[in-house]
Amino acid sequence: MTDANNDPAAAPEDGSDGSPRNFIADIVEDDLATGKHQQVVTRFPPEPNGYLHIGHVKAITVDFGLAERFGGRCHLRFDDTNPTKEEQEFVDEIQADIRWLGYDWGEHLYFASDYFEQMYAWAVHLIEQGKAYVDSLSPEEIREYRGNYFNKGKNSPYRDRSVEENLALFQRMRNGEFEEGEALLRAKIDMESGNLNFRDPALYRILKTPHHRTGDTWCIYPMYDFAHGQGDAIEHVTHSICTLEFEDHRPLYDWFLDNLPVPSRPRQIEFARFNLSYTMTAKRKLRQLIEEGRVAGWDDPRMPTVRGMRRRGYPPEVLRDLCERVGVAKRDGIVDVGLMEFVLREHLNRHCQRAMAVLRPLRLVITNWDDGHVEHFEVPNNPEDPEAGTRSVPFGGVLWVDRDDFREQAPRKWFRLAPGKEVRLRSACLVTCNEIIKDEHGEVIELRCTWDPQSRGGRSPDGRKVRGTLHWVSAAHALTAEVRLYDRLFATEDPTKVEEGGTFVDNLNPDSLEVLTDCKVEPSLAALQPEDRVQFERTGYFCADRHDYAADRLVFNRTIGLRDSWAKIEKKNKGGGKGQAKAKAKA
Prior knowledge:
Blueprint lengths: L2 H4 L16 H11 L7 E4 L9 H16 L3 E6 L9 H13 L8 E3 L4 H13 L3 E4 L3 H8 L16 H13 L8 E4 L14 E5 L13 E3 L1 H11 L4 E5 L6 H10 L7 E5 L11 H9 L14 H7 L3 H11 L10 H15 L1 E3 L1 E2 L2 E6 L8 E6 L9 E6 L2 E5 L19 E4 L3 E10 L5 E8 L17 E2 L2 E2 L4 E8 L26 E9 L11 E4 L3 E5 L9 E8 L3 H8 L5 H8 L2
Parallel strand pairs: 1-2, 2-3, 8-9, 10-23, 12-18, 16-19, 21-25
Antiparallel strand pairs: 4-5, 5-6, 6-7, 11-22, 12-15, 13-14, 15-20, 16-17, 17-18, 21-22, 23-24, 24-25
């Protein structure tokens, strides 16, 4: 792991231009200095078969960031070579997510399907050169013949077909004369290679599924390894940045470039993928959570998707800043989710307006308050930003306070409300609890207090020490809101680790969502718009839900609490194991 993973305040060493240094930037800088390239061209190549997640954000910041840093350009190219999983919806939403993150590709939007005819011609070229053949083995036989890391592969009995026969068979594949799995175009390289990617890799397979852009024009589609490098070459990409799982594919990437008449020679460079603790990004497993109803969809605020994090209240600046702090590494590691949460709190603390909201309301009556009298107190919008100004908050004789701020039998160091205790209501006054009212079940439903008129504004008139300060909302002016308390989706640091016979679903946090429907908030919150962020004083940071929030229906999602409650649990359960996971699940 990089230093930034361990120290929230750490950042990668800067280069001479002030930008964070990393080995990829050094390569690019050297290529420009030596005249190998006149302009940097990178690309981000998502497959339109799902929504972007936090791992994609890292790739986006690297691809677009390099181009921006060196005055080049970054292409957006969709790898749409598998029509069985791809949809136009994903194409549209991926573009929207990238723009939300703050990046744009200008006129350089491309699709692998733009190059299908050229790729077909290059496949024909390989056949003509005796470097590709049509294999008629079944998929099961191909796997058997390929071998594995311990056993060499063996040649297909169809490997030595003539050029003429291969050309005719490939044309028949294109014409739709074979069913799926009956024929496969393969490169002829080396079935005994120690690199399994060199063991006659597939170039084209048959898929009789309409394509979201080309319709029924094609029934054969290039494999990613064949399409990727050739797309880079067509677009004159200079530096093709991939994650480490493609390192073993690089020799094949170069083999295609060496054996095809491509118009340019891109260079593939690999870096460590973004792995985040307490997080899972595998699309198949995320889709399983959706299909089983464990989350509400791809944009559920607990999901690690860009769409979900946006709905939860993550600003795009935070995701970009996080990726910059982590840096670009050559070896895989796990980024502590605590770093992401640190960056998030740091940003929100600086930029969020404050407001008072009572999530679990308890009625408080000031018995020596004049009936019907209303005062307005000036409350700072953001103590971290004096230029944010103040707002006028109404205050009456009946208030809502948080039930969690009251104890009938208070412990010795309890500084909040209790019988006989005096507390400060933030920016308003001092009150003393004199009497509690209970219902027929013995539950406290009301506190009766007196206020000190000399304490207006929350000051102590005679210098007496009042240690407890509470938030409040005037009952006569309060608005009712629904508040969704989101927490980490998984209760274990590595959700992929499961006990024998278990699945990753067993690691879900059972308390990742609590919905409160009768919260009371100050009237200023009616002016918010969907996706606006706010700090509920003493509680946490919240976001007006981008779908459900409206002037007549206030719905807030908790982005993150004010403090890291998980850190205390982790420290308490330092030994780890099953007990630790259960404790975290209760956080």
